[in-house]
Design a protein that fits this description.
Layout lengths: L28 E5 L7 E3 L6 E4 L8 E4 L14 E4 L5 E7 L5 E8 L12 E6 L2 E7 L7 E7 L5 E11 L3 E2 L1 E7 L10 E9 L18 E2 L2 H4 L6 E5 L16 H4 L1 E5 L6 E5 L8 E7 L12 E6 L2 E2 L5 E2 L6 E4 L9 E7 L11 E8 L8 H14 L20 E4 L7 E6 L6 E2 L13 E3 L4 E5 L12 E3 L4 E5 L2 H9 L3 E3 L5 E3 L26 H18 L2 H15 L1 H5 L5 H5 L1 E2 L1 H7 L6 E5 L2 E8 L2 E8 L7 H12 L9 E7 L2 E7 L6 H6 L10 H21 L4 E2 L8 E3 L5 E3 L6 E2 L21 H6 L4 H17 L13 H11 L2 H4 L10 H14 L10 H20 L6 H14 L6
Parallel strand pairs: 1-3, 14-15, 27-29, 28-30, 29-31, 30-32, 31-33, 32-34, 35-39
Antiparallel strand pairs: 1-13, 2-3, 4-5, 5-12, 6-11, 7-10, 7-13, 8-9, 8-11, 10-14, 14-25, 16-17, 18-24, 19-23, 19-25, 20-21, 20-22, 20-24, 26-27, 36-37, 37-38, 38-40, 39-40, 41-44, 42-43
Helix pairs in contact: 4-5, 12-14, 12-18, 14-17, 17-18, 18-19
This protein binds 2-acetamido-2-deoxy-beta-D-glucopyranose (9 copies).
């Protein structure tokens, strides 16, 4: 029954029976035949694809050839392969355009190249992350892995890692540049799971497909019992006559389709994921392939797992491609799409092609590009022969030998240790080391380095340990280094350098001609301690001798390196106007991310201070931000959003992968803390206070929807995102990454998969269609929490949702059991009923029954008015008095919105 995973397999290398008509444009394609002799370029006659040897992309591994018998079955580009008997990690480095979307394929055909018939298993890395494990199951079957990926650097590393289960190898690599506006995800990359030309008995790829996607054909293994319920249709379409969309499914693929064999039954496409947690994106391609008569119509509804989707009354145009796709991940034990003919349709549904991708998250950011460039330069300057390939710091387990790195939660790893001791280095100390700006420990001991100890080493701000022992260094030790070691901020070891002299005994004028000097004298003997003592004594003398200018310029440079913007305007409120902060500003504002306020779906929130004003700094985890301009565009919009019930954005940081949002700080934390009373310093809210908070939050939401053009959908309304200031006024927060709804007739909006369980609109979950009503649902859940102080999902075996719990009590008419019992009856019953009514309407499964936010605001104010009437005028609880209070409420009790 289960779909075989071997479907990930075997397309790229397989012999495809597509007839070459004429070569399409291959710009944006990189096709590498691994192990092919250097300098060889060839064109596959079957596909017209031009391949090059891998010689320019890697300099390790050995070229091998598959057994000759297999050559008849496979295309030439997998006849050779590159095998890696040496080294743990071997990497290809392929130049690409950063921020562009690529379809990347890697193929593996073992072909018993080594005559051992031992099937290897090894890891495949993409950049800093594990892409997949390559598990060769059959020597004569090619395995392929394919992913849609947006590289963040100017190149990609594709690495094979020896995990002790056989010698890694690779047969072919293919990169195809895609449009950036197709196959969009919230985060993560898309791994090809199934791609099928439905209704066909042949597979197709380039040059039928402009992107060289391989379209497989119907088979019982993939679709198990679906297939025999289908009927194949085939009405050839000429490529020129097909009206395309951006997905560009090939005309030959669109020429065939499937339809239910039983005309009155639905068409079903279903599969069972191995892991119900896996998240999928599905792209379905349709076109009408038959000429319909006047009295014929083809129209269908699409359901997902038996529930209606937003795709109803779908109709198709003759020879015009229509692609319907999910805009967020879907998952489950069984995923079942049914296409149901509508009542008015005379023809059964059809579908021409389908693509299913699995979301693959790559959480580990690549090492900071500046560090990578620097260490790469160092490697080539000294001809370092170590096994240094791929990303220097990541994955952590494969850290380059001699390096140590920090792995900040929100940022790229940085190199902090470089140990090149006993590595046969010669020549001078290279200035490229200076570009490892976070370096704390530098060990160059036991080499043959010559020349002077360069002054620039003192510019490494974080350097704590410098070991230059046992080299051929000469000249004097720069005073700046001497000072640092005097202060105790640097541990300096310079012993066993016969020509190195103490600064005080060097002739300043002859500096730079160290080799010529005869009276260099007194080799600095011992390391650290000894040197430090001598140098301390010398330092004072030196201080006066040393040119003041060089000292002064040094300091200035240091400051400007730290934080130009910040330093210039340190004491000015203009800071708030500037709004763009560099990463080093953020470090300073947050005191190196010293205090964590919380963790959210998009990243971690830290406490910071700008001119003594506290702020909350949210650093976005790199995986949650895709699209470089998009972040900036969204933030710029949010900068303009101002409302007293929304936490205001003070500024932002957008430096490479460091993306942060700076918000006003809310002194009293979030609503949930107080409702649950979990943490020490919480306040118990009266019914009136609860309603005021509800009104505040509703006003914030209403402003996002009605006050902003285009409207903003929050997407993550929940009690932890309702923050309280020092006066316990509520503000909605965390709309920082809300998606803006485009105004012109767009049916649905691409969204973050996440949301928060319990708050996520179940309707949205099914339809992937995001509307204002999704936020209304979440708000309803919050309102239920405010009323009941109960957890959203009961922490017992039944996991009952707060809305089910409340509705079961409503059935019984038991209002007392619904309200937080700690209120001890101190509330107006009608006020509570009204609030419960609003909340239950908000969480209605029927979108149309959910009120719009402006109605919610009005109703909540009425509920508040009822409660105020009780507290002001105990005993009077008639409808009339309520109404009168309501009328002056707006001017008297509720602070006006800005
Ligand atoms: C592919 O290679 C052939 C033969 O070398 C050449 O004529 C053709 O222009 C190349 N095509 C592309 C798109 O690079
Ligand atoms: C092979 O192709 C590559 C990339 O297209 C090109 O740089 C190289 O010059 C070609 N080599 C030969 C021998 O044609
Ligand atoms: C990749 O780019 C780098 C830097 O631009 C360049 O030095 C290198 O030669 C390029 N590699 C290839 C294979 O084109
Ligand atoms: C390997 O695959 C080939 C071709 O598909 C098949 O004939 C052979 O039986 C397979 N071998 C094993 C050991 O499964
Ligand atoms: C065709 O499908 C309909 C509706 O599902 C069903 O009632 C009918 O029995 C099916 N006919 C055949 C021949 O299977
Ligand atoms: C449609 O019209 C054709 C004649 O033009 C007729 O033969 C056919 O029965 C009609 N079909 C339906 C469903 O009315
Ligand atoms: C298809 O959807 C429409 C619109 O929601 C609905 O009226 C109709 O009953 C549905 N038809 C079927 C067969 O499910
Ligand atoms: C690398 O740095 C970490 C943190 O600073 C430290 O715990 C670890 O011991 C270091 N590893 C090596 C090999 O120096
Ligand atoms: C350091 O990096 C900068 C910018 O990335 C580069 O221009 C410079 O050449 C590098 N310096 C050295 C000495 O490699």
């Amino acid at each position: 029954m289960r779909m075989s995973r071997s479907f990930l397999v075997a397309f790229l290398g397989f012999l495809v029976l597509a007839v070459l008509i004429q070569a399409q444009d291959q710009s944006g394609f990189i096709s590498i035949a691994c192990g092919a002799p250097a300098g060889v370029n060839f064109t596959e006659p079957q596909t017209g694809l031009n391949y090059t040897s891998d010689a320019n992309f890697i300099n390790t591994g050995v070229s091998r050839t598959i057994v000759p018998e297999l050559r008849d079955r496979y295309l030439r580009h997998v006849w050779n392969l590159r095998s890696f008997p040496e080294g743990k990690r071997n990497c290809y480095k392929i130049n690409i355009t950063r921020g562009s979307k690529y379809l990347i394929g890697a193929s593996f055909l073992y072909g018993n190249y080594d005559g051992l018939n031992m099937l290897p298993q090894f890891d495949l890395l993409l950049g800093a992350n594990l892409w997949d494990t390559v598990d060769i199951k059959n020597a004569s079957v090619s395995r392929s892995f394919e992913i849609i990926y947006v590289p963040s650097l100017d190149y990609v590393h594709i690495c094979m890692v020896d995990t002790g289960l056989g010698t890694p190898f690779i047969s072919a690599i293919a990169l195809r540049s895609l449009r950036n506006d197709i196959y969009e995800t919230e985060f993560g990359s898309l791994q090809t799971y199934i791609r099928r030309d439905l209704g066909s008995n042949e597979g197709y790829r380039y040059d039928d497909d402009v992107y060289d996607r391989y379209w497989g054909y119907d088979d019982a293994d993939t679709w198990y019992d679906n297939v025999d319920k289908w009927k194949q249709l085939n009405f050839p379409i000429d490529a020129d006559s097909l009206v395309q969309n951006h997905y560009q499914p090939p005309a030959v693929v669109m020429s065939t389709a499937v339809t239910p064999a039983n005309v009155s039954a639905p068409l079903v496409i279903s599969w069972m994921p191995y892991d119900p947690e896996e998240s999928f994106y599905v792209y379905m391609h349709f076109t009408e392939i038959q000429v319909l008569a006047k009295n014929q119509t083809r129209e269908f509804n699409i359901t997902l797992n038996g529930k209606p989707s937003s795709f109803k009354n779908v109709s198709l145009m003759y020879h015009s491609v229509r692609t319907i796709y999910t805009t967020s991940g879907i998952s489950g034990k069984l995923i079942n799409f049914s296409f149901v003919m509508t009542e008015t349709s005379t023809l059964p549904p059809i579908i021409n092609a389908i693509e299913i991708y699995r979301v693959k998250e790559f959480p580990q950011p690549d090492t900071y590009q500046g560090d990578v460039d620097a260490i790469t330069t160092i490697k080539s300057v000294y001809g370092v022969t170590r096994d240094w390939q791929g990303d220097p710091c990541s994955p952590k387990d494969y850290l380059w030998e001699g390096l140590n790195c920090t792995y900040p939660v929100v940022d790229s790893p940085r190199i902090i240790t470089l140990n090149l001791s006993s590595s046969g280095l010669s020549g001078k100390i290279d200035p490229s080391i200076l570009n490892l700006t976070m370096l704390e420990k530098l060990d160059l001991s036991n080499n043959s380095l010559n020349g002077e100890v360069p002054d620039f080493l003192s510019q490494l701000q974080h350097l704590k340990i410098l070991n230059l022992e046992n080299n051929n260094l000469s000249g004097s030790i720069p005073s700046t280094l001497v000072e640092k070691s005097k202060e105790g901020s640097l541990s300096l070891s310079v012993g066993q350098n016969p020509h190195l002299c103490e600064s005080g005994q060097c002739n300043e004028k002859e500096k730079g001609k160290g080799e010529d000097k005869k009276n260099t004298v007194t080799p600095v003997v011992a390391s650290v301690g000894g040197v430090v003592i001598i140098l301390v004594a010398v330092a004072a003398i030196l201080w006066t001798l040393k040119s003041r200018n060089s000292k002064a310029s040094m300091v200035e440079k240091d400051q400007s390196q730290i934080s130009p913007q910040y330093t210039e305007q340190d004491d000015s409120l203009l800071q708030f106007k500037k709004q763009i902060y560099s990463f080093s500003d953020v470090l300073k504002i947050t005191n190196n991310f010293n205090t964590t306020l919380g963790k959210g779906g998009f990243g971690t929130v830290y406490l910071g201070h700008i001119n003594d004003t506290p702020v909350a700094v949210k650093m976005l985890s790199p995986s949650s931000v895709h699209g470089y301009q998009q972040f900036q565009a969204e933030v710029k919009l949010l900068m303009r959003v101002h409302h007293k019930n929304l936490t205001s954005l003070v500024g932002y940081c957008n430096e490479g992968t460091s993306k942060g949002l700076i918000y006003e700080y809310m002194a009293n934390g979030n609503l949930l803390e107080h409702l649950s009373g979990k943490h020490g310093k919480t306040k118990f809210f009266t019914w009136e206070e609860r309603l005021r908070i509800a009104v505040d939050a509703a006003l914030g939401l209403e402003y996002l929807q009605n006050g902003c053009k285009p409207p903003i959908i929050h997407r993550d309304v929940k009690s932890t995102n309702i923050l309280l200031n020092e006066l316990f006024q509520a503000k909605l927060s965390d709309f920082g990454l809300s998606k803006v709804i485009p105004t012109e007739g767009v049916t649905h909006v691409s969204t973050v998969v996440a949301g928060t369980p319990g708050y996520l609109d179940p309707e949205y979950f099914i339809t992937n269609r995001l509307t204002e009503k999704s936020d209304v649902y979440s708000f309803g859940v919050v309102l239920l929490e405010i009323i009941t102080s109960q957890p959203v999902i009961a922490r017992n075996q039944e996991n009952i949702h707060i809305s089910e719990w409340v509705s079961s009590l409503i059935m019984k008419g038991d209002i007392k059991a619904i309200v937080d019992s700690r209120l001890e009856g101190a509330y107006d019953t009608n006020s509570v009923w009204k609030a419960v009514e609003i909340a239950t309407a908000c969480v209605s499964p029927n979108l149309n029954k959910r009120p719009i936010t402006s109605v919610i605001v009005v109703e909540l104010k009425e509920s508040l008015a009822m409660e105020l009437a009780r507290t002001k005028n105990r005993g009077t609880n008639t409808r009339d008095s309520v109404t009168s209070v309501t009328m002056n409420l707006n001017t008297e009790f509720i602070p006006q919105a800005r």
